[in-house]
Write a structure and sequence with these properties.
Layout: H1 3-20, H2 22-31, H3 36-54, H4 66-79, H5 87-105
Helix pairs in contact: 1-3, 1-4, 2-3
Length: about 110
């Protein structure tokens, strides 16, 4: 597994979530609703944590293999904690994911 590539992607996603908080900060300032400090603290924390994850591995390159390396990324962003799957769990997760995709996107005709 390319852990550095996974770390780079997760760091970038967390840092970008901090950047996405800039418009709410502007709106909070414009409407003076009292939540500006919370938005600024959240944005700065996201930028700091994401930057610290991304910076050491910013040059890591590689292609992620299907489910094997994408599942930890989706699990990390879903629950905020890393999940490492053994071979049996990866296979079960793959089957569960395929069933979900077929159920969700199956033919409507």
């Amino acid at each position: 597994m390319r852990l550095f590539v996974v770390q780079r992607i997760i760091g970038a996603v967390i840092a970008l979530s901090g950047v996405i908080m800039l418009p709410p900060i502007a709106l909070s300032l414009a409407f003076d609703d009292g939540t500006t400090v919370a938005f600024v603290e959240s944005a700065l924390l996201s930028l700091l944590v994401g930057g610290l994850l991304w910076l050491p591995v910013r040059r890591a390159r590689g292609e992620l293999r299907a489910l094997r390396e994408n599942v930890p990324i989706s699990r990390m962003t879903e629950r905020g904690e890393p999940v490492m799957l053994d071979a049996g769990a990866r296979e079960a997760e793959g089957k569960r994911l395929e069933a979900f995709i077929e159920e969700s996107c199956g033919s409507s005709g």
